[in-house]
Amino acid sequence: MPELDSICEKYGIQIRSLVSIKEAFSDCHFPAALHTMFFKNAIFSIDDLKNKTAHDLYIICGHNYALNMKTYYTLKKNGVVFDDWEDKYLFEVLSQKNSALMWREYDLTTMSQLLDCNEERLKEICSAFPKLSETIMTLLPSIQS
Is pTM, for the whole model, over 0.85? Predict the structure, then answer.
């Protein structure tokens, strides 16, 4: 082991493990699968998430929307601020509960998908989520109810 450490030090190689990731994110209580995803994407600490977007996190989470949403909210509670990207996930502008409902009921995950809805579908969504109706119309000012 000392010889391996010496060689790694000589070539500037750092050996990392899931243990360091688990320790770095211990307050977040993430599932073990996410630790592996972080490892594969060279995320070893909160600092490694700087300059990342919610979409980068979606890719890190293996395109798993539910995991992405949960991870996003947990990281946000722990002080991580994500950069903007060309679109927004609904969980970035709505509550976790409402964005989860929009995803489950209408398979909507992003603002661009909401913008692409025809008037009939928007009315259906607004009637299904009356408390969200005003918020949806605020997000889509060009649409009239």
Answer: no
Question: Residue 7 carries which side chain, given as an amino acid letter?
Answer: I
| Sequence letter at residue 58 | Y
Residue with tokens 């977007």: 53
Provide the 10 A C-beta neighbour count for residue 60: 21
Q: Encode the chain in three state secondary structure.
A: CHHHHHHHHHCCCCCCCHHHHHHHCHHHCCCHHHHHHHHHCCCCCHHHHCCCEHHHHHHHCCCCHHHHHHHHHHHHHCCCCCECCCCCEHHHHCCHHHHHHHHHHHCCCEHHHHHCCCHHHHHHHHHHCHHHHHHHHHHCCCCCC
Describe the crossing of helices 96-106 and 130-139 by its angle, rounded to 10 degrees: 90
Q: Which two tokens stand for residue 9?
A: 């030090």
pLDDT digits (tens, 9 = 90+) for 51-106: 999 999 999 999 999 999 999 999 999 999 999 999 999 999 888 888 898 899 89
Q: What is the pLDDT of residue 93?
A: 85
